[in-house]
Automatic annotation (TrEMBL):
PANTHER family (alphabetical): TYPE I RESTRICTION ENZYME HINDI METHYLASE SUBUNIT, TYPE I RESTRICTION ENZYME HINDVIIP M PROTEIN-RELATED
InterPro entries with a match to the protein in the record: D12N6_MeTrfase_N, DNA_methylase_A-5, DNA_methylase_N6_adenine_CS, SAM-dependent_MTases_sf, T1MK-like_N_sf, Type-I_RE_MTase_Subunit
GO molecular function: DNA binding; N-methyltransferase activity; site-specific DNA-methyltransferase (adenine-specific) activity
Catalytic reactions on record: a 2'-deoxyadenosine in DNA + S-adenosyl-L-methionine = an N(6)-methyl-2'-deoxyadenosine in DNA + S-adenosyl-L-homocysteine + H(+)
Limits of the N6 adenine-specific DNA methyltransferase N-terminal domain: 10-149
Protein name: site-specific DNA-methyltransferase (adenine-specific)
């Protein structure tokens, strides 16, 4: 399936599912739809493993050979044979074949709740992940049946090995589409893919611990796992403050074959990983949180390098990220543009400390409209504890890279832009050339786009971190046409346009007179 065909298929699928929504709000409806995709995924994995076991039981040379049907049934229900291959055991009432067989029953909503309950009972590690909301919801039984029919299409058949991958991509597409339809609320659980791709491309997570303390639906983890060529060498840790979003994230990472430790809780006030030292922190925290509970932060909190304020949590998030870095770690995260220049005393003091102590590695100012959930302009910050010339990186503790990418991005809808792969690669390459030793391409300042500034230069600008202050303006291309000749050409063109305008006005006037 080509990329375009894949997108068209997923869009058709989402449109079909959305027709079943009825009067339920998108923010609630996703909790009815996404668990069905997850249930289908677990059932497919189970069925595929069941077929492998069946093959073993028919082989007389196999340790699992079953001479009769009774023995086969015993072996095929052996939980250990599934767990040995990291496959969840799906009980009869939770299998997709059973759901499909009962899809037209009047009590299908109750059947789904029981399916979710039995699946959690059989697999304690799934506890709390699967909602039991169907029977109590306003979604009509026939609409639930319609959803089951949609996810029973041949393309999702367990007999097709690609179905597991297709279900993972479908889940991600649905999350993106629900976020778009929810507007501002969608940003609570979803970060636009081009921003995630840029963060990951710049951080280059190859091996080690990846931490996202505002992990939403887990998109940062999936992109990081896709990036590294050495699978299974990354471990993932996440925290999220909304119960339903934790469920979405846990389902999403499992759908992509990723083991992630995702915990529920307020990262700033109830850190679930107090001792974690991550090699990569990657996050899109809530923008400009007010009244977030600063009064509950002790002055002795080990995360603090400066004061906190209840009027905005941005710089508490930054201190949280910095604290959780290992001594060779780097954090890349999204921030509202105001964080680059805020003059609020507490925030400015922390910003000055970050600059003065050499933690600020890079700041990227992004184009507007990348988020469909907010009109707030945003940027990327990169803080690093690995700027002293170790681990294959250049010594750059007295430097900060500024990138102004505001002119990048193309409209993908009336309200939203996205960065192209070429633009992501271009920005990431500039950062890599700046920090890495022995890169194939030497870093160079580009007027209007990127500039390496010294800490002293930044201090002279009141520690403001807006790239536009430092990168200057883009050099314009000079041509050889003299000014007088250019003005003559422009004047002649303007006269011709005026004459054409007069001609059209006269024609319209005559046409109107004939009508009268």
């Amino acid at each position: 399936m080509t990329v375009k065909a894949d997108i068209d298929f997923q869009k058709d699928l989402f449109d079909a599912a959305n027709k079943m929504r009825g009067s339920i709000a998108p923010s609630d409806y996703k909790h009815h739809v996404l668990p069905l995709i997850f249930l289908r995924y677990l059932s497919n994995k189970f069925e595929q493993r069941q077929l492998e076991i069946e093959t073993m039981t028919k082989d007389p040379s196999s340790d699992w050979y079953a001479p009769d049907q009774e023995m086969y049934e015993i072996i095929s229900e052996d939980r250990d044979l599934y767990r040995a291959e990291n496959v969840y055991f799906v009980p009869e009432e939770s299998r997709w074949s059973y759901i499909v067989k009962n899809a037209k029953q009047a009590n299908i909503k109750e059947i789904l709740d029981i399916a979710m309950k039995r699946l959690e009972e059989e697999n304690p590690e799934l506890e709390g992940m699967l909602p039991r909301i169907y029977q109590s919801s306003n979604l009509p039984a026939e609409n639930v049946s319609g959803l089951i029919e949609i996810f029973s299409r041949d393309v999702f058949s367990a007999k097709d090995e690609r179905s597991v991958d297709i279900l993972g991509r479908t889940y991600e597409y649905f999350i993106s589409s629900f976020a778009s339809s929810e507007g501002n609320r969608g940003g609570e659980f979803f970060t636009p893919s081009s921003i995630v791709q840029l963060l990951v491309a710049m951080l280059e997570p190859i091996s080690g611990k990846v931490f996202d303390p505002a992990c939403g639906s887990g998109g940062m983890f999936i992109q990081s796992e896709d990036y590294t060529p050495r699978k299974r060498e990354l471990s993932f840790y996440g925290q999220e403050n909304v119960t339903t979003t934790v469920r979405l994230g846990k389902m999403n990472v499992l759908l992509h074959g990723i083991n992630a430790d995702i915990r529920l809780g307020d990262s700033l006030l109830n850190d679930q990983f107090p001792d974690l030292e991550a090699d990569y922190v990657i996050a899109n925290p809530p923008f400009n949180q007010k009244d977030w509970g600063a009064e509950r932060i002790s002055k002795e909190d080990p995360r603090l390098i400066g004061p906190v304020t209840n009027s905005n949590a941005n710089y508490m998030w930054m201190q949280h990220f910095l604290y959780h870095l290992s001594n060779k770690g780097t954090a890349g995260f999204v921030m509202a543009n105001g964080a680059m220049t805020t003059n609020l005393r507490e925030e400015k003091e922390v910003r000055e400390r970050l600059v003065d102590e050499g933690y600020v590695d890079c700041v990227v100012q992004l184009p507007e409209k990348l988020f469909f959930t907010t009109g707030i302009p945003c940027c990327l910050f990169f803080l690093s504890k690995n700027r002293d010339g170790k681990e294959g990186f250049r010594e750059r503790k007295n430097e900060i890279l500024f990138i102004d990418a505001r002119k990048m991005g193309t409209l993908v809808s009336r309200k939203q832009k996205a960065l192209s792969k070429e633009e992501v690669d271009k920005i990431a390459a500039v950062y890599h050339n700046f920090k890495n030793e022995g890169t194939s391409e030497e870093y160079e300042d580009v007027a209007g786009f990127c500039k390496v500034s010294t800490i002293d230069e930044v201090k002279k600008n009141d520690c403001k971190l807006t790239p536009g202050i430092y990168v200057g303006t883009e050099e314009s291309e000079e041509d050889d046409v003299p000014y007088e000749e250019k003005m003559t050409q422009l004047t002649q063109r303007l006269i011709e346009q005026f004459e054409e305008s007069n001609r059209l006005q006269e024609k319209i006037r005559k046409d109107l007179e004939e009508l009268v």
